[in-house]
Design goal:
alpha+beta; 2 domains; two-stranded antiparallel ribbon; 5 helices; 10 strands; about 30% helix; elongated; disordered N terminus; disordered C terminus
Length: about 200
């Protein structure tokens, strides 16, 4: 059969994930005061500390206008303009919350993603989160590590000891049972993996 790591239960797919795309978050823009009508400026992205893109924006009362350049692989850069409508909902304690309307499906969303030419919601582009792309084994290990760091005072390389300070015994015992179940799941799948190859 295949070599170490072969098979989809162990290895994730290589499809682009949300974390690898440029995104515009309306919550960030609101906190920074960038949604006031008449505001203009630029949004910039970095990758590993290096600039990886920027766009110009202008904010109006009912929409956000984006101006940027785009090119297909190796083609010339072309100017692009995109308008994104706002939607507003009332908050329980007064005021209102502003949302984007996805330019393709018209769904109310907080984040739009620049995966292709336009900024659209993740559902339209069908972009998964990186956690959805992890292979089954990696997902189990990730769950085990997160839970181990939460409940043990000392946790390293998949081994934990000592109840975390401030954690009630009842909660610790409940989460420890879950941790042990995940650990057993990992052992079973590792056993299957080693027996198959």
């Amino acid at each position: 059969m295949g070599g170490r790591g072969s098979g989809t239960w162990y290895r994730g797919s290589t499809k682009t994930t949300i974390e690898e795309t440029k995104r515009i978050d309306i919550r960030y823009m609101r906190k920074q005061g960038l949604l006031k009508s008449g505001t203009t400026g630029s949004l910039k992205w970095t990758c590993r500390g290096e600039p990886s893109g920027d766009i110009r924006y202008s904010c109006f009362s009912n929409y956000l206008q984006l101006n940027f350049r785009y090119r297909e692989y190796g083609d010339e850069w072309e100017p692009m303009e995109q308008q994104i409508k706002f939607d507003r909902t009332s908050c329980h304690y007064g005021g209102e919350r502003t949302w984007f309307r996805c330019p393709h499906c018209n769904k109310r969303v907080a984040v739009l993603y620049g995966y292709d030419i336009r900024f659209l919601c993740r559902h339209c582009y069908q972009i998964p989160y990186s956690s959805q792309q992890e292979g089954y084994m990696n997902n189990v290990i990730s769950q085990k590590d997160k839970l181990g760091e939460r409940i043990f005072e000392y946790y390293d390389c998949g081994e934990g000891w000592g109840k975390k300070k401030g954690l009630h015994w009842k909660t610790f015992n409940r989460l420890l049972s879950r941790y042990q179940a995940i650990d057993n799941q990992w052992v079973q799948y590792m056993g299957k993996y080693l027996n198959l190859h």
